[in-house]
TrEMBL record:
Species classification: Bacteria, Bacillati, Actinomycetota, Actinomycetes, Kitasatosporales
Keywords: Signal
Superkingdom of this protein's organism: Bacteria
Keyword hit for Signal: yes
Signal peptide region: 1-25
Protein name as it appears in the record: Uncharacterized protein
C-alpha cells in the first residue's frame, strides 16, 4: 500500500511540474502591432482607410487587408490573386501572396488574406513604400499608401 502512495505522489508531483513548465514557457513569436491602418489610393478604383492585420508563427507570417474600396460585383471566395509588397526598414521589400478572400456581395469592402510571407526576427515592415496588387476578374487593381501606417510599422519577433 505504501508503494502505491509513493507512486501516486511522484506522479502528481511530475504532473504539477509539467503544468508549471507550460505556464512559464515563452509565448509564441509575435508581431507588434497586430493591426495597423493606412490611407490607400487605388487610382480609378477608389481609396480610403484600409486595415492590415498581421500574425506570426516563427518565420511564417500572414497579413489580411480590409480595404475601403467596394467590390463592384459579387465575388466568390478565393477569387482574388493578391500580392502585398511591404517596404523593409533599411531597404528592400517583403512580399505576402495568396488567393484567399471571403465571398463578398457587391458594395462590400474588399478583403484579401490571409496573405502568406516569410519574415526574420527583427524585420520592420511598412505598407508605405510598397503596394497591394489584386487581380480581380482579370483586372489588375494596384493600391498604394498615401503615408505611413498607423500606429507604426509591423515589427516581427
Amino acid at each position: 500500500m505504501r508503494r502505491k502512495r509513493i507512486g501516486l505522489g511522484a506522479a502528481l508531483a511530475a504532473g504539477t511540474l509539467s503544468v508549471t513548465g507550460l505556464a512559464l514557457a515563452p509565448a509564441a513569436a509575435a508581431v507588434v502591432p497586430q493591426t495597423a491602418t493606412i490611407n490607400a489610393n487605388c487610382g480609378i478604383y477608389g481609396g480610403g482607410e484600409a486595415t492590415l492585420t498581421a500574425t506570426q508563427n516563427g518565420t511564417s507570417a500572414t497579413i489580411t487587408v480590409t480595404s475601403a474600396i467596394a467590390a463592384p460585383v459579387a465575388l466568390s471566395a478565393d477569387s482574388i490573386a493578391s500580392t502585398l509588397t511591404m517596404a523593409k526598414a533599411g531597404g528592400g521589400t517583403t512580399e505576402f501572396t495568396g488567393t484567399k478572400n471571403p465571398a463578398m456581395a457587391a458594395g462590400d469592402s474588399v478583403t484579401v488574406g490571409p496573405l502568406s510571407g516569410t519574415v526574420a526576427s527583427g524585420d520592420s515592415l511598412e505598407a508605405n513604400g510598397g503596394s497591394l496588387k489584386m487581380v480581380v476578374l482579370g483586372l489588375t487593381v494596384t493600391c498604394t499608401a498615401d503615408g505611413p501606417q498607423s500606429p507604426g510599422p509591423f515589427v516581427f519577433d
